[in-house]
Amino acid sequence: MKKIKAIYATTILLIMILSTLAVCSSSSTINHEEELIFKEEHSPLASRHFNQIPRHLVLIYDGGAHRSIRWDSKHFAPYVSADVNGETDWLFDGFLFLEIKDGQGRGFASGYEKMPARKTEWENLLHNYFSKGNAIHALNEQIGNIRKDSNGNKGFTKRKIVLSLPEPIPGQVDWGTLDGRPLLFSNKKDRLDACKWYINYAEELFQNANFENVELVGFYWLAEEATNSRDLAMDVASYIYSKKYDFYWIPYFNSDGYSEWEKLGFNAVYYQPNYFFNESVPYERLQETCNRARKFQMNLEIEFDERALKNNKNWGYRLHDYLDVFERNGVFDSLKVTYYQGGDAFYRLSHSKEPADVELHQRLIQLITKNKE
Questions:
Q1: Is-contact 80 92, C-beta < 8 A?
Q2: How far apart are alpha carbons 199 and 197 in whole angstroms?
Q3: If DSSP codes are grouped into helix, strand and coil, which group holds residue 81?
Q4: Angle value at C-alpha 24, between 18 and 25, nearest 5 degrees
Q5: Which of 199, 209, 228, 261 could be disulfide-bonded to 269 (CB atoms 3.0-4.6 Å)?
């Protein structure tokens, strides 16, 4: 009996040792080879969506007096389509129009300017987006130009438009009036009423424009942290959802509330690595961002600006880093991606003759056209 017990104990010990080795081997593989962490069968963002979420959503900053870029149809051309293997192919399927300040001292969210934007600035922002020959009208026109070509309708679906929603900054007393009543942002109801007014007005302008090639699919919460919105975002979300739109959010790395996005009310969320902008941020930041995106079921953002160009800062290598890590983790196969480009860095890459810039631009095009379904 003792012999049997000894054999049994030895057997158990061997099993435990082998199990431990297997676990250690598995951990080593994940840490050093960075296996795919995103797979189609583990679909992120299981929240209900009212519209198709764009696969590739590019950020278009426009509306402030400090902006020098004219977003006319020609400027949108390299964002709408590109020549791929001798044929015209569609590129970005989503366009997020946003602005952080009016360029004259007032901000559309906390932290950008000393004075908050008022109703008049909110209204002017929308008028800019819906002015003829600019922004959404220009984008719609350029898409129409491509569709006139013989193969222009091949694989075409309406491009998705997302509009930024300014933050009603807490404590503001000079925003303006609704129905003769001055709104005071010290109380939640007035803040919510301002958001509802903006959403309704944007929807009205969009419907009146009768665009043929674009559709409004959602609104983007401009505040990148939850600090001032924990008691408001869910109510704004309920109103947006009642109109069958989606509620987008792109919190920065370690942003207050980034992992609580679902509780806050958002249903289309992307996480910022914030790697590109400072060479002191280590390469490992990108893998950590992927790990968090998987854990909290978030999509991801690629970030670059004009410093990526060879004759500027020559930081194209940092954009390549994003693409390397995201490809290695299966991001483009399984997640949605937003593209922060500063002002119009993608446009500048498309027009550069520098070999390094051409290579970088072509790599972006290949990723977008390959992973667009």
A1: yes
A2: 6
A3: strand
A4: 85
A5: 261
pLDDT tens readout for residues 308-326: 999 999 999 999 999 999 9
CB 266 within 8 A of CB 273: no
Look up residue 68 and give its two tokens.
């020098």
**Residue 119: other Cβ atoms inside 10 A:** 17
Is residue 180 within 8 Å of 196, Cβ to Cβ? no
Contact criterion met (CB below 8 Å) for 350 and 359: no
Find out whether 93 and 286 touch, Cβ atoms under 8 Å: no
pLDDT band of residue 35 (cuts 50, 70, 90) is low
Q: In which band, very low, low, confident or very high, does the pLDDT at 36 lie, cut at 50, 70 and 90? A: low
Question: Using CA atoms, how far apart are residues 126 and 199, in angstroms rounded to an integer?
Answer: 10
- Helix ranges (H only) for the chain are 2-33, 73-80, 119-129, 135-147, 188-209, 233-242, 261-264, 284-295, 316-328, 331-334, 345-351, 355-370
Q: Are 5 and 299 in contact (CB under 8 A)?
A: no
For residue 197, pLDDT beyond 60: yes
Place of tokens 């505040």: 223
Query: What residues form DSSP beta bridges with 83?
Result: 88
In 3-state terms, what secondary structure has residue 18? helix
The three-class DSSP label of residue 162 is strand
Which amino acid would we find at residue 245?
Y
Are 249 and 220 in contact by the 8 Å Cβ rule? The answer is: yes
Q: What pLDDT score does 313 carry?
A: 96
* Amino acid letter, residue 18: L
DSSP string spanning 240-308? Answer: HHHTT-EEEE-PPTT-TTGGGHHHHT-SEEEE----TT-TTS-THHHHHHHHHHHHTT-EEEEE--GGG
Q: What is the pLDDT of residues 338-353, one digit of tens each?
A: 999 999 999 999 999 9
> Residue 290 in contact with residue 310, Cβ under 8 Å?
no
